[in-house]
Design brief:
By secondary structure, this protein is mainly α. Helices cover 90% and strands 0% of the residues. The protein has four helices and no strands. Helix 2 packs across helix 4. The longest helix has 32 residues. The radius of gyration is 19 Å and the shape is extended.
Length: 102
Amino acid sequence: MRLGRWKLFGGYFRTYSSQPYKETVEAAEHLAAESLLILERKSEEERRQIFERATELTERFWDAAEKEPPLVVAFALLTALRTHHQLLQTQAKQIAAMRQNS
């Protein structure tokens, strides 16, 4: 019984100290912070439109995801967060480079 607990602890330790875990948490925190800051600067009408589109996208996602096992859905969400964060970072670097060149 004790060996099983140590294996479980070791698994948690490897997971929480892994690079993919750290990148995923960082991506989620960064996206949340930046998105909320940007949203705060929008007008009430723009916010309403953003929320409507986000709701529609969420509904389409869940329509597709409800057919999948929970673990598959979890990994899809986590992968989407990391991928979206990386895309935004790449776009930001490209915009910064264009500004320097002009």
